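seq as requested:
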Amino acid sequence: MGTPEEGERFFDERWPEARAVSDPEKTLFDAFGLERGSLGQLIGPRTWLAGFKARRHGVGLPKGDPRVLAGSFLVRGAEVLESDLATNSASVPDLERLASAALALRE
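struct tokens:
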């Protein structure tokens, strides 16, 4: 939900070849059905631990609405082929599963 400039700074430091989309208006978040987490999903013990780890690795404060839970999607055209929705704010996406699904499309 950050600005394009914030995204460029973030990825220049961490993953320069990454492609990202800036969505400060939450248009894509809403289109993909990403919802705001409950109090338990946002401040449970797992989320505190993940937050401390993220800060230790240089990840800053959240941008936009910090209550919106994350999601990762494999999209082709207008079709969502695979998705991985966060169950809490500490959820880590299963990128290996999404990558495997993407590779299977090429076969």
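The longest helix spans residues 45-56.
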